[in-house]
């Protein structure tokens, strides 16, 4: 051991023990501060420096990391507008007007955002009813493809110009004095017409060319010829006991469908099982239209036989009413016999019958007018006093315009709302001629096919951002008011016209110049039409509040002009080809005007139940023994090449019952090439449409179909053609047999499924008896339980329930889109629907029954049945779905873990699972590649904040992995209950109306309190007695929804 | 140890084993380096396990929408696989518990491996109810625990909740039973081991010394666990069948399901045991422990349960017709002749027709036939669950919602992946523990008494004493 130089003999290290120099030095400097020095390129850091550096590093990293979080600002109002109360909805009366579509609406806004369209009950045209198109209008406001500013159009893109620059440019062109043409669809706005008049006054070389996407030009021409009125009368379906339609889809798309649907349904509703009456409806057509699917008797013809059918009916009616007969073309015997019977019915209901015709052939329309004349329907069920203004176009004007443009006679064309480059059959000619026009201006809000060809874009506001008015029918005025400030730098078309006309009536200093213009017109000349309000301001305020202003028009009677001769040579002559094709308009897409609306694209076609595109409907054939085959053995989803006049397109097949043999059909409106999400779905069939005598014909006499051997991998159809018991003839025995029983193994039991009950009106008592027995048996079965708990849990308070009148339901789909809109139901896109992942809470099931070759159709809106003994509730392991004291089957999304047992155990299959992050609401990233998006390179549809503005803040946006379903619009119930509570009274019918109920144009859906004997829902179900039933009543689910049996009158 | 000596009884362990031989034969696989076959098998199995993990991550990350299930057929391969694995997991408990109570002493040759198989199959089965959830990260909601969400409890009416209890109980009891059996054997391995291995086996054998008290407690515990397990064999699959039987869907809502499911489970379980045993005895050279008599006995169980299942199928059809209830009739007609007819015929052929071959003693005692048919049976049992789940859902009450299902690669990967998981676990098991219960086999060594009375008695006698001495240390 070394010398003990330490006092206590303790050392701390060898250096200490050896008393090395360095140690002694450092020991003396107890608090030495080692400066941070860099030696040999290395940090000799002290503990403190380390801490400093670490502190800085952590702080910097934290700051840097937090910078990535997007900053969302919530800016409070400095001065809160009086009318906006967070959480409280405001409703503004307005109108949905688009060419031939009209609907008086109320726009629901929340915190200044329009989120939902409701019907305006004050309008006598639509009476609160809506259509799918009107319901979906709110989504097009938030279309990400809207043009965001004015500009020049170069290479399919809008290059921004300020409005002032654009105005100067255009005014410069206008003042050159060349001839100006304005192309538009039907425009019924009185104030817009005033603006147009000012424009025309300034530039006298201006002419307005009007055509409609789907033409009624022949009808107008025929009415002009027969009655001296170039207009469409009011058809009173509500007063007609017998209705016959030659291919007019009057419930879906023809003239004024919302109005027709209500009137028609009023004659179809069965209010009691005894002494029931209803109208009788014949439909002559080749494809199954929405209207035809509702008919009591469908008379199948090939499209080219329509003229023959019109003549045949005329002859039958004339024979019985003393008219002169004509010699029309030959018609198939089956149709002839059926028309004979129809004629007798029509004649028997003289003056209370109605014959309509949807064809674009003047002579056919003339003969139909004559039939109505012979039947005494003119001035009775057909009212020329109130004209329908919604179809005023004539495509012959467009043909003339093409000629003018080709002859370089037009220097400026303004396209206002129309899309001729897509909609016209001769769009190629149009495009070539259009290119010769020097200045081409478009008011379109999106870069559609025509706008892409224009030189200037002056994008108009969306309707929900606009002021305006409309006169859909004589004496029925309707106001349009904005519900949100323009989202983009757009300007109303009327304003642009007035600006360019350098109008002195436009107060440019005002915030909303066109508002002042409109208001002064109403307060001035419109006010004069009434005497209730003395001042213009009071009249304006009241009209704006109501949204509509109606002046009963003077009655007018017309008579059939004596000089009109019926020339059977003028009607369509039957073709001789083996295959004909017809083209039809669907309730959702129209002729492509609505193709860019995802809600409408994803709304299934009522008959074929396909989505996202147009499909070739081919007939289904019975092999006489065991099989139902698609024509040419085609299968659903198979691609075929269709050629008409040498023009070939590849279409996807959907087999359709009821499609007339020897014919196929395909909807208009597919194959858009520009402007939004509809691009790339379906095929554009417009170039196939023949033009006959200047009029567009919606059929072709000759078509060829060839198989391609390929299939559409994403064929999207939500319901295959399952039937409910079709009858066919067994060729071996000659007996009529249940074809379903033969096909697909024992599907015959479908007939007896307690899902749909139907009967002929004549057999109504028998059906009532059968149903009474069924109810009795079901009751008996349902009492056989291990748990004989007979407590009436819902005897007190409110018990919510619904009644769906299957006789009034026409299958139009307005309720479905309303539900999507109200409840934030996501759009999933074609590929996901093809995988049966659609999310619709409310769907309209379509079942066929009756004759296999020409079956009848019943539509069944199917939503959560809110079973009081719900199979879904007891199987959920976590109690995520349970029953309210008011009889509602509730979903607690936050509790749901997504086992999907409830969906399996739902006999009605109404539960929907969020397979993927459809709404991008999840904390997990979206499943990007499967998400619906407008274009391939877009962000997912719902990830766009513009699209998200449409979401209803009262309804939770569901995340991935949870189940959702119809809630009976629980948010509306809650709101209604609060209203009643504030007013210290019981809840009444009007407090709570479900979204589907308010959307329905026919009143087929009634919702309310079942515990209140005076509620509409109690009364409706009570009224039909035993005819009301619950779907699958015998399995003891005790649904809260009742349906009525479907009755037909043939 | 003093079993009645009967010249009628066959020997249960062949090859004139002494106690020492047994310890040697059964411990050696855990001690020597893995064989090439083992390495190849393990590589393949773990590759599939990797695929499984990938598919699970894919599902959780992207969503259940990556599967082929749809609005009508919300369960498909997921629950099919779940029920299939649970069924397979029934043989172990049956062999260890029920056969123990019935004193079927031949069971000792196979019970260890069968129990291991049970545990691994239940692990595989347990995957599916969890990963099929839309929000798997909230899977803990299914446990009834006091929580801060108000008095929010699970739904005790739900068969899915019963499943949670049934499967977790089954798993824990099976695991306990299996591990209890392992303790003396792990001690045997420990005694032969050295170094780190010895330490590990010391921990896992819980300090077993082989004292009389230990053996007494061990036997009591085994019996108690057997008693607890016995009802579980019947209850677990009964409860799984309630997932379907308590529903309202025609084709699911049938009272025959509990016995039918239990029989089917034993059927498929035994088939899986056969598949594994045939391979294991070959690879680990255990032909003398897992004898052809074992295979024969188990094949008898297979033909019995297969026939029960067949009777159940026919009963279902009869009852559907006899009920006069159209939905029921349609559901079964659709099963047989509907869009998925091939799966029904696959099920009928594999489960009812193919096991009938086992009536032939020759086939019953043929290794190759046994191996082949055991796989056929499990294919058939998979089809059975697919028929019950997907076919039924595809065509239920409302024709408007009918749909068709076909799997995506994710579902196929999940299924094949769990097979990988199963074999990975089983292969690890063969390396770390004796695959035949050493202690129990030793107990039955002298059952036939041939070492004392038969032609082998003389020469093996001395050995016997010697090994007995060894055994005692």
**Oligomeric state as shown:** heterodimer
Largest sheet report of chain A: 7 strands, mixed
The tally of strands of chain B reads: 0
Q: Indicate the proportion of strand residues of chain A.
A: 15-25%
Structural class of chain A: alpha/beta
Runs of chain B in which pLDDT lies below 50 for 5 or more consecutive residues are: 1-5, 460-473
Q: How large is the count of helical segments of chain B?
A: 17
Report on the architecture of this protein.
The complex is a heterodimer of chains A (1050) and B (473). By secondary structure, chain A is an alpha/beta fold. Chain A contains 29 helices and 46 strands. In chain A, a hairpin with a 2-residue loop joins strand 19 (468-473) and strand 20. In chain A, helix 7 (217-227) crosses helix 12 (362-374). The longest helix of chain A is centred in the N-terminal third of the chain and has 21 residues, at 47-67. Chain A starts with 13 loop residues before the first helix and ends with a strand. The mean pLDDT of chain A is 89. With 473 residues, chain B is mainly α. Helix content of chain B is 69%, strand content 0%. The model of chain B is unreliable at 1-5 and 460-473 (pLDDT under 50). Classes of the chains: A alpha/beta (1050), B mainly alpha (473). At the A-B interface, strand 37, helix 24, helix 25 and strand 41 of A face helix 6 and helix 11 of B.
Present the secondary structure layout.
The complex is a heterodimer of chains A (1050) and B (473).
Chain A: H1 14-18, H2 21-28, E1 37-39, E2 42-44, H3 47-67, E3 89-98, E4 101-110, E5 113-119, H4 132-141, E6 151-154, E7 157-160, H5 163-174, E8 180-184, H6 190-202, E9 206-210, H7 217-227, E10 232-235, E11 242-246, H8 257-266, E12 280-285, H9 290-294, E13 297-300, H10 306-321, H11 333-348, E14 353-357, H12 362-374, E15 382-388, H13 395-406, E16 412-416, H14 420-423, H15 427-434, E17 439-442, E18 456-457, E19 468-473, E20 476-480, H16 493-500, H17 513-526, H18 536-546, E21 548-550, E22 580-584, H19 598-601, E23 616-618, E24 620-622, E25 628-630, E26 638-644, E27 647-655, E28 663-667, E29 691-692, E30 695-696, E31 699-700, E32 704-711, E33 723-729, E34 736-738, H20 739-742, E35 758-760, H21 764-783, E36 800-804, H22 814-822, H23 830-834, E37 843-851, E38 856-862, H24 871-875, E39 881-883, E40 889-891, H25 901-905, E41 912-913, H26 945-948, E42 963-964, H27 970-982, H28 995-999, E43 1005-1009, H29 1016-1023, E44 1028-1029, E45 1041-1044, E46 1046-1048
Helix pairs in contact in A: 4-22, 6-16, 7-12, 10-11, 10-12, 13-15, 17-18
Chain B: H1 19-31, H2 36-62, H3 77-88, H4 91-101, H5 111-131, H6 159-192, H7 195-204, H8 212-245, H9 257-283, H10 292-323, H11 326-337, H12 341-353, H13 361-364, H14 367-394, H15 409-432, H16 438-444, H17 457-472
Helix pairs in contact in B: 2-15, 3-5, 3-9, 3-14, 4-5, 4-8, 5-6, 5-9, 5-15, 6-7, 6-8, 8-9, 9-10, 9-14, 10-11, 10-12, 11-12, 11-14, 12-14
